[in-house]
Amino acid sequence: NTMSISEALPDNIEGLITGIMGQGESSIYQNGIGWVGSLAETGLSGTNGYWFTAAENLEFSFNSPLDNDYVSRQNNLDRKIPNAYTFSQSTKQAFYFIEFAELGGKVLSTEDLIIAYNGDVVVGSRYWSGGITDIPAMGLDYGEMYEGYASDADLISFKVLDASSNTLIDMKSSILTTWTENSISLVSLSEIEIPELISLSKAYPNPFNPITMVKMNLPLEMEVNVSIHDMLGREIEKLANGIYSPGVYELSWDANDYASGIYFIQMVAGNQSSIQKLMLIK
After folding, report:
1. Strand 222-229 to 17-21 pairing
2. What average pLDDT does the chain have?
3. Is the N or the C terminus of the chain less surrounded, counting Cβ atoms within 10 Å?
4. Cα distance between residue 85 and residue 281, in whole Å
């Protein structure tokens, strides 16, 4: 039978369980809120297997189901996902619990679909539930259907299919979303700011010792080179080199191995070039 998580777990150990993972579904316990995630909607099902993460070693058995423990509730998991954003269930998976997500300054609607990518490959998706929503991200497994799926240390990115405009929007994560098998992460998502012009912000701090930072603004996908030069014009460091998607990128230079003096940072992007002076004081 199917039971809610709280009914299935004995009271003396429920507080020690930090997360539960099933096949493409999971839940975590949030103080003051209770269980959140897809398993909080569907409950735990007999004959299904689950992974538990716990705060300490423990032993327990599930409580026996009673008639009034059976769960029969509507949930967000039965909704059909567009074919372009479906994925194959793998034996290797991780979960990203989206605590907060917004588009244009507004929280997502329950019609918006959150999609997890490894590179350009869809590895998970789920409709925003209206609260904390768990997004599965499948790992590399045997078979052609898993080609391009995540391996340890791969970086997972997220997009939202905006129901109001039917457009796919790149999202920025609040943490570095590296993939590890059976891991659970808490993430907030916000719309990536797309600048109107190519530009390199003023370095901050400047003068500096030994680290300074700049922001690189790109309105379109383009090839970019950002490099550091000494007083003789020799390139001594490369901060960015390659094809970059539209967005705002933070770049930093650690000059710990260099002597005090004047340096220059140059950005070449598209048909534009900009340069500014840096002062390293030790």
Report:
1. unpaired
2. 91
3. C
4. 51
* pLDDT at 105 (0 to 100): 80
* Whether the Cβ atoms of residue 150 and residue 118 lie closer than 8 Å to each other: yes
Say how many residues make up the chain.
282
Per-residue model confidence as pLDDT tens digits over 68-105 = 555 544 455 668 899 999 999 999 999 999 999 998 78
Taking the C-alpha atoms of residue 6 and residue 14, their distance in angstroms, rounded to an integer, is 7
CA-to-CA distance for 39 and 72, rounded, in angstroms? Answer: 13
Q: Name which of 120, 111, 136 is nearest 170 in CA terms.
A: 120
Quote the Cα angle for 10-14-15, to 5°. 145
20 exposed, middle or buried (CB, 10 Å; 0-12, 13-18, 19+)?
buried
For 175, list phi and psi in degrees, rounded to 5: -135, 170
Q: Do the beta carbons of residue 97 and residue 133 sit within 8 Å?
A: yes
Residue 214 pairs in a beta bridge with 251
**Tokens of residue 185, six digits:** 């992460």
The string of pLDDT tens digits covering residues 15-65 is 899 999 999 999 999 888 899 999 998 888 888 899 999 989 998 888 776
pLDDT at 78: 65
Q: Do residues 69 and 3 lie in contact, with contact meaning Cβ atoms separated by under 8 Å? A: yes
